[in-house]
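tokens incoming
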């Protein structure tokens, strides 16, 4: 079993990996507030458990150092440290031999969902001039009820001879928190370190001015709470019913000087007399920012993707192999199935010529409306027009495009009443080929702008670009395993930014590409070795294998979900009884196509398993009108200075896998840091080099 599914309310888990010696220059979270309450990344001399994964709140073991490296909550973004500043890890002198990631799940998921949240650390081998550390200000004072404003205060004196320079801060409370601030006092003068509304994304915010805290200075923090809706005292604690008062101060010090906090930096004392002249600005609320509060919102409803229905018939029509799915502009679903025809070992000869050339007599395009798990068949089309349906797409002008692997053609259609009118057909019917006028078992099609992109899949392993009249424009891709090459491109969709996602089936990956065929990133994992279909909604990429990994059949097949721009898997879901025997509940047989509804609320999977052709329907459970996070929202926080572009970084992913840490880490293409581009600009990938090879890829599965 891989991935974690929380078992209870306020479920804490931790995972540890041995620290790689180097210097951490950036952190990239992979999580969402719908699923995860918060994550804390520690550097430890020893982890609390030698099991690699454990449940509970423990992080670092006794008898060694415990150092906070990074914290995340409420959809905070990436963090890039300033130039020549980094966390030292994995060295004898820094005391950090292990990374421990603690994840707090507020509530169990709904449905069969497994989470792979984590943090990617960007590590350099170049020692910086300044070393970074984090000080945690934390209060344990309970909060009385029925008060519009209650302050928790924390104060410590700085006693080290090594000056420190705060450069970023983060605030954290639960729902009652309204403001967290911190100041330091030098020679009787207070200077602000930072203040922020903890209901906003809980990022590390850059401190705009250079600060220096020296020996004898007073450091103080304060949390403001609103307890008017409470009828009891609320204690400080780790559970959702408790509260927290945390201020994280990230600072750096001269790497040539002694570490001011060799055992970790924490301040938890309350000295009321020292807070009497704390600046009034530290108590005053910030102006409201509804867009930030919306972005940071944590759902009160458990996140989940719930199996809503399994359809074997639509409008009384028994489904054949469900080969393709598409939504039209009226939010109806077009189901492209094969009726009584089945693709098996006897369908084609050795030259990819279809043996039974008679068209399918029954309607193969079913136009369906959905209301929850109730369906209405609105139209049935395409009788006598197709040999072996595969891919279908509807453009913004309501033209329908199809691929037929039996006739080796791509067609454009218009629905007129109850008829399907052909506009044009590209390719020579019944004659496969590799040139500009032929296809060989084309699989998928999508439109971007005024061009169509066709995956010419089973034989040619290429993407063919057509104009809207079906004329050849260009092609890209060759058979092979390298970047930009394909081993049976099986599906193609576009994302919200006008780029394409090609399902590279037998290479077991989804290649995210520009419209010129340059690879931006790829989604690939040892959790699957084939991918049949993919879909895109907002920042997320949904992908489904058609077969389980050999030897892991009992685990069942899942849909995997990754974040665009990260190339990593965030979570997975499947049938309500995934991994159990068919007698205990239906399982995915051979998923072939996957699409997400335009509003993102429903996910449909077409299954072509012999004798068990089905349309699976899942519902995304979330609060009404709450959409998932998108990277395009303008959050208005300052950006930290980018790291030195000469750093030769690599990635460490702390993803969850029970007792098999590291074995299931997903692969990500390392971005070239030598080009001087921003380290974490997810729109700024450079094209990866494409190797040219010559070869022929045959059908990877006789059943499809």
């Amino acid at each position: 079993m891989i991935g974690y599914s929380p078992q209870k309310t306020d479920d804490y888990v931790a995972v540890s990996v041995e620290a790689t010696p180097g210097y951490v220059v950036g952190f990239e979270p992979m999580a969402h507030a719908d699923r995860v309450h918060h994550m804390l990344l520690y550097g430890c001399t020893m982890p609390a458990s030698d099991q690699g994964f454990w449940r509970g709140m423990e992080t670092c073991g006794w008898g060694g150092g415990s150092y906070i490296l990074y914290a995340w909550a409420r959809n905070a973004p990436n963090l890039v440290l300033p130039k020549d500043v980094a966390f030292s890890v994995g060295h004898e002198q820094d005391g950090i031999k292990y990374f421990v990631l603690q994840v707090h799940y507020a509530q169990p998921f709904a449905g069969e969902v497994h989470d792979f949240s984590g943090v990617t650390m960007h590590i350099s081998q170049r020692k910086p001039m300044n070393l970074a550390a984090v000080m945690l200000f934390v209060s344990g004072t309970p909060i009385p009820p029925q008060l519009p404003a209650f302050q928790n205060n924390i104060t410590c004196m700085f006693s080290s001879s090594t000056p420190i320079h705060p450069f970023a801060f983060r605030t954290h409370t639960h729902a009652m928190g309204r403001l967290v601030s911190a100041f330091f006092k030098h020679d009787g003068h207070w200077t602000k370190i930072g203040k922020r509304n903890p209901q906003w994304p809980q990022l590390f915010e850059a401190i705009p001015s250079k600060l220096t805290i020296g020996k004898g200075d007073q450091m103080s923090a304060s949390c403001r709470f609103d307890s008017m809706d409470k009828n009891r005292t609320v204690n400080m604690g780790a559970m959702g019913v408790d509260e927290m008062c945390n201020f994280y101060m990230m600072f750096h010090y001269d790497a040539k000087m002694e570490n001011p906090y060799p055992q970790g930096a924490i301040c938890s004392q309350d000295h009321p007399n020292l807070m009497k002249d704390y600046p009034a600005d530290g108590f005053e609320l910030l102006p409201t920012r509804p867009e930030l509060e919306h972005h940071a919102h944590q759902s009160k409803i458990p996140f989940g993707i719930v199996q809503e229905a399994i359809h074997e018939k639509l409008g009384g029509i028994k489904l054949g192999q469900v080969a393709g799915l598409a939504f039209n502009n009226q939010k109806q679903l077009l189901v492209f199935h094969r009726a009584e025809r089945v693709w098996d070992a006897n369908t084609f000869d050795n030259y990819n010529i279809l043996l039974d050339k008679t068209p399918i007599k029954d309607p193969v395009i079913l136009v369906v409306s959905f209301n929850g798990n109730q369906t209405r068949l609105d139209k049935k089309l395409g009788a006598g027009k197709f040999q072996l349906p595969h891919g279908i797409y509807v453009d913004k002008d309501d033209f329908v495009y199809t691929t037929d692997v039996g006739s080796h053609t791509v067609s454009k259609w218009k629905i007129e009443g109850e008829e399907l009118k052909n506009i044009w057909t590209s390719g020579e019917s019944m004659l496969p080929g590799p040139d500009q006028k032929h296809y060989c078992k084309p699989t998928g099609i999508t439109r971007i702008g005024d061009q169509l992109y066709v995956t010419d899949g089973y034989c040619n392993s290429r993407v063919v670009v057509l104009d809207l009249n079906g004329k050849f424009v260009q092609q890209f891709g060759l058979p092979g395993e390298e970047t930009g090459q394909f081993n049976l491109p099986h599906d193609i969709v576009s994302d919200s930014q006008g780029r394409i996602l090609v399902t590279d089936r037998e290479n077991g990956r989804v290649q995210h590409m520009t419209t010129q065929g340059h690879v931006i990133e790829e989604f690939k994992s040892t959790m699957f070795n084939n991918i049949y279909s993919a879909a895109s909604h907002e920042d997320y990429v949904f992908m489904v294998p058609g077969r389980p990994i050999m030897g892991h059949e009992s685990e069942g097949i899942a849909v995997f979900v990754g974040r665009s721009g990260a190339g990593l898997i965030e979570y997975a879901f499947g049938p309500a009884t995934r991994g159990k025997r068919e007698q205990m509940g239906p399982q995915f047989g051979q998923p072939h196509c996957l699409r997400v509804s335009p509003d993102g609320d429903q996910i449909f999977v077409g299954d072509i398993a012999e004798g068990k052709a089905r349309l699976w329907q899942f519902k995304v459970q979330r609060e009404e009108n709450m959409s998932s996070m998108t990277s395009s929202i303008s959050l208005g926080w300052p950006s930290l200075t980018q790291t030195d572009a000469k750093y030769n970084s690599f990635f460490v992913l702390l993803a969850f896998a029970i007792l098999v840490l590291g074995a299931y880490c997903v692969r990500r293409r390392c971005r070239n840091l030598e080009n001087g581009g921003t380290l974490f600009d997810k729109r700024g990938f450079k094209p990866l080099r494409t190797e040219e090879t010559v070869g022929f890829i045959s059908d990877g599965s006789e059943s499809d």
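note: The longest strand covers residues 177-186.
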